[in-house]
Amino acid sequence: MKNQTRPSGISSLGYVPWGTHFCQFYRDKKDLLDILIPYFRAGLKNNELCLWVCSEPLDAGEARKALARAVPGFPSYVKRGQVEILPYTEWYLKGGRFNSRRVLRSWVNKVNQALDLGFEGMRLSGNTFWLERKDWKQFTDYEEEINGVISRFNMIALCTYAIDRCGVDEVIDVINNHQSTLIRRGGAWTVVENSSYKQTQEELRQTERRFREVYEKSPIGIELYDSDGKLVEANPSCLEIFGVSSVDEVRGFRLFKDPNLSPEVRKRLRSGESVRYEAPFDFEKVKKHGLYRTKKSGIIYLDVLITPLGARAKSGHEGYLVQVQDITEREQARLARMEAEKVLHQAYADLEKRVKERTAGLARANRELKKEIARRKRLQAEAVESGKIFEGLFSSIITPLALLDREFNFIRVNEAYARASQLPVSEFPGRNHFDLFPNEENQSIFKNVVRTRQAYQVQAKPFTYSGHPEWGVTYWDWSLSPILNENGEVRFLVLSLNDVSEEARAQERLRQNEQLLRNVLDVLPIGVWTIDGQGRIIHGNPAGREIWGGARYVGLEKFGEYKGWWLDSGKPIAPGEWAGARAIQKGETSINEEIEIETFDGKRKIIRNSAIPIRNARNEVTSAVIVNQDITEEVRLQRQIRQQQKMEALGTLAGGIAHDFNNLLMPIIINAEIELLKTEAGSSTAHSLQLIVEAARRGKELVNQIVTYARQKEQERRPVEVAKLVREALKFLRASVPENIQIRESLVFGPVTCQADPTQIYQVVMNLCHNAAYSMRETGGIMDVSLIPFELPADPATERLGLKPGSYVRLSVRDTGEGMSQEIIERVFDPFFTTKKPGEGTGLGLSVALGIVKSSGGAITVTSQPGKGSTFHVYLPRIEAGAESCSMANEAVPRGKERILFIDDEDIQVRTATSMLEFLGYRVVGMTNPEDALKEFKSHPDDFDLVMTDQNMPRLTGEKLATEILKIRPGIPVILCTGYSELVNEETARALGIREFVMKPLSLQEMASTIRQVLEA
C-alpha cells in the first residue's frame, strides 16, 4: 500500500492515510449528512471509488439525492461507476443474514475492482442502525477483523453508529475497534483518538526494529516463506550461502519445488512437523531447473532446520521459517579423515599379516636350511615381493607417514608426508626431524616415547612452521609409535599425521557462534531457559532469573514447586500443565500463554510463557526451550487504559445527560418558583409547588452526582457527614440492583463527621455495595449497610489494622452471597485480581477502595466463608467539626428595571427566562438564534444593560458570541450559562471578559442575585 495521505473532507479530521478505519456517533439524519456528504465529495474529487451502505434514518434514495445536490456533475460519476449507494439489505444482510466472512470478502473484491478500473482506491461507509443486539458480538468481532483487511489495501472506512442505540459497553467496543471517533460536542464535531491503538503501533515498530537488527546480523542463514511455500524474505547470511546478490532475485521461489528437498522432508513439513537434517545441496540441480541465478556451483553441505509457523484451520500453516548453516568444510574434513583412517587401518592390517607370514617362513627356512635350499630361495623371493608390496603401500597411502630412527633422523617419508610438509621426498632422508621442524614441546614428547616405549597420539594440535610464519597456524592429529628390536629396545619410530585444520577452524567458528548466541541470550530482555528431557534446567539467562527471582533445578516430578495461575480463568496451573512439561512429555509447542506466577522471592508477576520442544534425528524430544516475557506492567497499563476509556465514555454520556437534563429542570424550577411567589403561603397549591421545586432540585443534585462519579475528579478533603453521603449512595444504588436483592440500611442518627474527599468516600461505598450485589446476582439475598461511631481500644487487634486507638466511624457492608475462600481473601485487595468473568470487571475496585481509605487514615477488614456471605468493615477517623452545610437562608428576591438581551437555542429556555426576568421587573429581548442576536446587538449596542447567553448553541457558541459582543461594546456585563460544558469554565470565561459563569439549572433566587451582583459591580 502506498504510504500517502488523502483528504478526508472532514475539517476536524483533515488528511488521513490509506488504511484508516474510524467511526461517527450520530443522533439524527442531519448528523449523518454533516459528515458523509463532504466525506464522499472528497473521495469523488480525488478519483476514489465511493461505496455508501445506508440504513435508517437515512435511506439510499435520500442519500443519493443529498449527494447529487452537493456534488456538481454527479450523474457523470454514477455513469462511470465511481459511486454506489446501496441499502444495507443488499450488502450486510445479503441472503437474509449477516455473514462476516462474506462481507470481508466483498470489501476486498470491491477494492480490487476499484484498482482494476483505474481508481486510486476505495472510500466506504456503512450505517449500523440495522444491527440487532443479538448480532452485536459477531459484528464487533467483524470490526476487529476488518482492521487487518483495511490496513493492507488502499481503503478508508467510516462506520456510523446511532448514539441513542448504544449503551456504555457498546460505546467502548466501538471506540476500541476504531482508530478515531467523531463526536458532536457543543455544536461542533470533534475527534477522539484511540490512545491504545497509537501505543500498540509504536510498540510494534520498536519490536520490529529490534528483531530486524538481530535478523540482519545473524550468522545463520534465515529464510521466511508464506503459507504457499513462496520465499518472502532472506537475510544476508542466507544470500551468501546460496550465492545470490539480492533477495529480489529469489523472492517468490517455491520451497516445495526445490529438487534438493527430499520427499520425506516434504511429507513431514506438510504434516506440520519441524524438520532438521544435514544433506548435500547440488547447485547444478538449481541451474538445470532454472530456479534462480547463483554465483556458486558444485555441491555444498548444509545443516537445515525448517519450522512451520502458526496453524490455520483450513489452509495449513501461515508460513515456514528456514535456518541454514554451511557445513561443507566440516563435512569434507570428516569424510577425508574417515577415508584416511580406513586406508591406514587396512595398510597396517596387511603389513602385520605380511610380517607374520615372513617371520614364519624365515623360521622354517632356518630349521630346514641345509635340507631345503630351493625352498629358502623361494621364500627369499617371496620376501622381496613382500618388500615391494610394502614399498608400494607406503608410497601410495594418502595418510602422511614417516619412518625415523631413535635419534629422530628421517629414514624415509611417503608422498603424502612430503606434500603436507611442502618439501620434496628427497629432502628428508638423513635429516633430523627437529632441524626441519623445531619445536621443544614435540621434541620432549618424542624423547618420552623412546624412554617409555609407549605410543603417543594427540588430536587437533596447533603447529606453526617457523620458516613460514605466513602460512599461519595449522592443526594436526598425529601419532608416534615405537618399533622395538628383539631386545625390546626402540629401533624405529613411525610418525603418522592427519591435517585437521579446516575441521578445527570449523569447530572454533561453531564455538564462537555458540558464545555469540550465549552473549545474545545474556542481554536479551526476555527470559530464555533450556531444559533437558527430564525437565531440569540446563541454562537460564539473567533476564529469566530476574523474572523468577532465581531458578529451581528440579525435574518434572517436582514441577509443583512452580506456582502459577491461568490469567484468563484464574485456575492454578497443575504440574503437568506447564508449557515446559507439555513440550517434554507431549512434544507440544506453546506460544504466548499468559499466566500469573509467584516468583521464588514471593512476588506476583504476569508473564507470557512459550515452550518449543527440541528433537533429535529420530524425532524424539530430547530437550526444550522456554521463553518468558514479564508483561506485568503492560497488563497493568492495558487494564488501566481500559478502565480509563470506560470512565471517559461514561463521562461523555454523563455530560450529555447533564446538559439536556439541566436544561429541562431549569424551566420547571423557575416557573414553579414564580408561581410559588404568586401563591398564598400555606395553601395546598403552595405546598404542591414547593414539592415540585424540591423534586427538581433533587434532580439537579442527582445529575451532579452522576457527573461527579463519572469524572472521578479528586476534590479537596473537608469535613464530610458520612451518614448523609451513604444515604445518597444507597438511593443511587437501588435503581441498579436487581429486585431479588433486598437492601437494609442501619445508619446512625445525628452527625458523624470525617475529614475526607466526599467523592472518593462515595466511590468506596459504591464499590463495596456493587461487589456485594454481584455476589448475590443469581440467588438473590440481603445486603446490610450499617454506619456507627466506633471506639478502637489500645490492643493488638488495633495494631494489626495499622490504626491508632481513638474515635472512628465504622461502615459495614454485609451480604448473604457466595462468600470467599481464604486463598481469595488473601488476594482480594490485589490490583487486577478478580473472580468475575472476563469483561465483567477489571479487578481495580477493591484495590482503589483500599487506597482511598488508607489515604484518609483508615483501614478495611474482610471476613468471609464459602457459602456464608462476606462482611467488609471500613474504619475512618472521626472528627468533632461539623460537615459543611449545603442549606441556604431564604432571602428576599432582588429586582430591577434594566434592559436584558437573553439568548438560548431552546425556545422553552427563552420563554421561561423571559417570563422570570419580566416578573423581576426587567425589560427583556429573548432570542433563539445566536447569529440573529449578534445582528440585533450590532444594530442597537446601547439599548442593552446586560447580555445573558447559553454556551452550547449550534453555529455560534455562547463563548464566541460573548467575544464578538465585547468587541462591539467593551465592558458590557455578560453572563454565560450552561447545563454542562467541557470547553469552558469559570476561569476561561473570566479571561475572556465575561462577568459571571453559572451552571444550569438556576433557581429564581440564584438568577436574581447573580444579575444584581453583575449589574452593580
UniProtKB/TrEMBL annotation:
Residues 899-1015 form the Response regulatory domain. SMART domains: HATPase_c (SM00387), HisKA (SM00388), PAC (SM00086), PAS (SM00091), REC (SM00448). Residues 656-880 form the Histidine kinase domain. The keyword Coiled coil applies. It is an enzyme of class 2 (transferase). Residues 207-245, 513-549 form the PAS domain. The keyword DNA repair does not apply. Keywords: Coiled coil, Kinase, Phosphoprotein, Transferase. Residues 456-512, 591-643 form the PAC domain. Residues 321-382 form a coiled coil. The modification 4-aspartylphosphate is found at residue 950. Its EC number is 2.7.13.3. It catalyses: ATP + protein L-histidine = ADP + protein N-phospho-L-histidine. One of its GO terms (molecular function) is phosphorelay sensor kinase activity. CDD domains: HisKA, PAS, REC. This is histidine kinase. It comes from Candidatus Saccharicenans subterraneus. The lineage of its organism: Bacteria, Candidatus Aminicenantota, Candidatus Aminicenantia, Candidatus Aminicenantales, Candidatus Saccharicenantaceae.
